[in-house]
Amino acid sequence: MTTLTVKEAVYYSAQLQLPDSISIAEKKKRAEMVIKEMGLQDSVNTRIGGWAVKGLSGGQKRRVSICIEMLRRPKLLFLDEPTSGLDSAASYHVMSRILKLARNDGITVVASVHQPSSEVFQLFQNLCLLSSGRTIYSGHVSSTEQFFTSNGFPSNSKKSF
Question: In this protein, which residues make up the domain named ABC transporter (predicted)?
């Protein structure tokens, strides 16, 4: 996959994943649509790249992977560490695109994220916080600060919630 361009990777995936009842033209249209939705239209002719071949940035590669998953418009999308290894700006960009698509298409997104920035954290609607495999908090993001302060944790003036 490292030698394919963004357009080729997403288009070939559309050909392989989508049912035969969908025309080739419609598959191509859907591939172009997800590329645009994930903000990769300026990179369509860029090779994905890898350790030996220069190509896309880490954030762009993640967005290509998400494009491929979004082709079928799943009702439920699981993302394991979609922001791992990205800087805070790239993390925010990736997550805001994913959540915009989710809201527009009625997709439920379940994402595991370690140490999100406060900006990324505010994008989420619900939170399930685990510690050593146990649920510490489960509920709406807007209620987290109240929950923790009412349970004896000091409020952080830097707004980590």
Answer: 5-84
Query: Sign of the C-alpha dihedral, residues 96, 108, 104, 74?
Result: positive
What are the CA-CA distances from residue 160 to residues 4, 6, 51, 88, 124 (Å)? Answer: 40, 36, 35, 14, 14
Model confidence over 16-60: pLDDT tens digits? 999 999 999 999 999 999 999 888 999 999 999 887 878 998 888
Residue 28 has which token pair? 């191509």
Whole-structure pTM value: 0.76
pLDDT digit string (tens) for 82-108?
Answer: 888 888 888 898 899 888 888 888 999
Query: Radius of gyration (Cα) for the chain, nearest Å?
Result: 18
User: How many angstroms separate the CA atoms of 111 and 102, rounded?
Assistant: 12
Q: What long-range pairs does 99-105 form, CB within 8 A, spacing at least 24?
A: 99/123, 99/124, 100/37, 101/37, 101/38, 101/70, 102/77, 105/73
